[in-house]
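Intended use. Records such as the WD40 repeat domain-containing protein entry shown here are meant for training and evaluating sequence-to-structure methods. They are not intended to support clinical decisions.
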Amino acid sequence: MTRLLRDTLEDWAGEARVPAGLADRALRRRTWRPYGAAVLVAAMIAAVAVFVTGQREPEPVVRPLTPITLPPRPSPAPADVRTDTEHSPPAKLVAAGRMAVSAYHVRTLEPVSGEQKRVRRTWSLYDPRTGGYERTPWAWVDVAPGLQAAAVIEGDLLGRRVGVMDLNTRQMLGWYELEHSVGSVAWSPDGTRILATAYSGYPDLMQGEGDELGPVRTASPRTGYYIIDVPAGEAVYHELGPLPNGLTRDAEHTNGNGRQDFGWSLDGRLIWGPTTGTPDRVFYTPDGVQQEPPEGERYRRGTNLSATSPDGRLVLGRDGLPTKITEVGTGNVAGRQRVLQLHAWADDENVIALGCAGRCEDEFDNGLVLVSVDGSRMTQLAANRDSDGDGAWRWVLTPR
């Protein structure tokens, strides 16, 4: 009977979140009597059943929506180089090869109470009618691959309405009314689904002054996420709270930031949440079950962008002057670049990067450039700006 009890509990442990050593603790405390074994088994079965029921993940909430027909992506996609080195933020489209600056935001700090401040983003969207950018009132935006449609959040910082806009006509194709407030939206790689991260409160709170300015160290208000299937007309909500902060002992993954937005894997089969350690992300199924990282996928840290070249031969290196690009198969250095960061592949031989002004005496005086793998060719894409200053703009790169 002892072995039967232990085996039964171990089987259940593989299917439920049973406290470590539950079987051993139960067995250590036993006082066997001839008639007590069956009673103990029954009691343990009941206890584990209650525990499993209490720990079961909430069922996803499915909400039917109106299907939306999205505008078709251009074929073939443009691959020319477009620059604007006269304006900061840019007034004209910035693009190179397969990638474009589809949107950007300007970040400002607003007083809240005491030393606390909150981050406000003012968004501008690419406007194909003018070839430039148009300021928007939305709390968050993301542009679908192909630069034909955008997902937007209506609200002040957070919102419960997500809309889909046709970029060419500037008309809203439809709105989604949600039960939970969301703070970010991200299109899937195929441009058909929207991943919206839900928060119970605004996550971008700061405190301190000057060099002491940093995020407020409280638990992230992240509560879960929606996956909105735009053509099918369906939104599914899943509860998934934040990762613990860095003060939590024995946690496999941690994140001390309030904002913990979800993103898509490169093939769109999984989603991921950010960490502040290594690895920099945790992967989940669309239903929220943690998974191993997809084999062979490499990312630009903290983004949905692939670090591997389109032909699969090369991989982007880490930040830091100079940067380097290595061969996937051998790890040999294919080239070094006099830039601060490598951001996205324009094509197999050129990368959109963050370059520095002049002799790179100030790391915050920087701008977008196009640099070759061997570092011998560099084209300025956008004007240099003080990236640490109030009102600095931050780009969003999207496949064309």
